């Protein structure tokens, strides 16, 4: 009997890990709510929805799984939600029998244009995905995760990028749970897709996109967190690409202009390190004279270029983030990560420095 009690209490902490998964219950866009369906294993006869129905409430475990796009065996939705550039979006996740239960890990949102066909005919694994939002820990003394808010029945919020061109898109809401991600392969992915139609007369497109199979490196620091339960732990590196910039399609493509999209470094190898979502204040700028002979350092495969001291200053002086998820419209204020010790000469000199000014990593001085 004594051994039976020991086994019971040993297994008890594992119950939430195997039973407490969930699905996207609803999405609200500019005040209009669209309900989702429970997974087909729970609700085999779904109601019409703009949210693609998934097959099971369990997580995706492999970054090479096609289900990473929209969820396990996700079915095309019957409806299409309406949105505009700048629309406010609220994602409401829940477990089958109550509120969401996991509380460690980032919340993110992506989009992909449904090219050539309506979204209900579009294969999400063929999409060109770009990140529009990411949110991790609260920048306060608790260091609690925003994911914990979902356990209290709260949604998490994102914003459709301003000036995004009109057309059909998949909007991908994702939770990454890290409660057992102390080693490679422990991260759990919960994606879900909403079919939307962007209205308006925007002409913007993302400066970079990625296929779903290239999105994450399972060994990246944002997905392997051995110190996650240590007191004072800070989650500083988000998995995947940085938040995309939305640039006019007919805008300039070369020359000395700060309106051009910033360079993306080695997008085929994402997420050894990605940019953080904490906005930085004016004190994080580093005054740097614009000079073509300046030396820059590459911070990561996915992060913008920047000077080492400017990046480190930005981390030390970052301001308290908004409780709303960071949007693509605020991407220029994303907090950069520390650069490595190796510096390389800037191949484009003046152009790259102007991109740094655009990203507010440095500030032009006379």
Main attributes of the structure:
5-stranded antiparallel β-sheet, alpha+beta, 18 strands, 366 residues, 5 helices
Please provide a written account of the structure.
The chain has 366 residues and is of the alpha+beta class. It is 10% helix and 24% strand. The protein contains 5 helices and 18 strands. The chain has helices at residues 2-11, 15-19, 147-150, 308-316, 350-358, and strands spanning 22-29, 32-35, 81-83, 88-95, 98-99, 107-113, 129-135, 156-159, 167-177, 188-198, 204-206, 246-248, 286-289, 295-298, 305-306, 326-327, 344-345, 362-365. A 6-stranded mixed beta sheet has the order 3-10-9-6-7-16, with no helix packed on it. Strands 1, 2, 4, 5 and 8 form a 5-stranded antiparallel beta sheet that branches. β14 and β15 form a beta hairpin. The protein is globular, with a radius of gyration of 21 Å. The N and C termini lie far apart (79 Å). 46% of the residues are buried. Residues 1-20 and 252-366 have low confidence and may be disordered.
């Amino acid at each position: 009997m004594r051994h039976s009690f020991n086994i019971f209490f040993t297994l008890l902490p594992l119950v939430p890990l195997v039973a407490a998964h969930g699905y996207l219950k609803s999405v609200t866009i500019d005040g209009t709510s669209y309900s989702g369906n429970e997974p087909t294993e729970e609700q085999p006869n779904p109601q019409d929805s703009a949210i693609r129905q998934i097959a099971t409430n369990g997580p995706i475990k492999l970054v090479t799984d096609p289900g990473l796009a929209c969820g396990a065996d996700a079915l095309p939705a019957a409806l299409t939600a309406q949105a505009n550039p700048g629309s406010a979006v609220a994602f409401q996740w829940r477990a089958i029998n109550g509120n969401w239960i996991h509380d460690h890990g980032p919340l993110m949102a992506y989009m992909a244009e449904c090219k050539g066909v309506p979204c209900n005919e579009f294969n999400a694994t063929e999409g060109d995905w770009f990140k529009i939002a990411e949110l991790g820990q609260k920048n306060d003394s608790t260091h609690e995760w925003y994911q914990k808010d979902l356990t209290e029945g709260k949604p998490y919020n994102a914003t459709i990028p301003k000036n995004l061109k009109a057309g059909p898109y998949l909007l991908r809401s994702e939770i990454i749970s890290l409660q057992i991600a102390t080693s490679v392969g422990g991260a759990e992915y919960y994606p879900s897709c909403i079919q939307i139609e962007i209205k308006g007369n925007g002409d913007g497109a993302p400066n970079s996109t990625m296929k779903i199979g290239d999105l994450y490196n399972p060994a990246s620091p944002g997905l392997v967190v051995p110190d996650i339960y240590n007191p004072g732990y800070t989650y500083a590196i988000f998995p995947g690409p940085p938040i995309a910039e939305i640039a006019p399609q007919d805008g300039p493509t070369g020359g000395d202009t700060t309106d051009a999209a910033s360079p993306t470094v080695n997008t085929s190898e994402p997420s050894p390190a990605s940019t953080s979502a904490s906005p930085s204040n004016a004190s994080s700028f580093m005054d740097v004279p614009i000079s073509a002979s300046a030396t820059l350092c590459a911070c990561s495969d996915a992060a913008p270029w920047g000077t080492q001291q400017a990046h480190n200053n930005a981390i030390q002086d970052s301001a308290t983030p908004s409780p709303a998820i960071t949007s693509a419209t605020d991407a220029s204020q994303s907090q950069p990560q520390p650069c490595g010790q190796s510096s390389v000469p800037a191949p484009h000199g003046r152009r790259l420095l102007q991109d740094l000014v655009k990203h507010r990593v440095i500030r032009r001085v006379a």
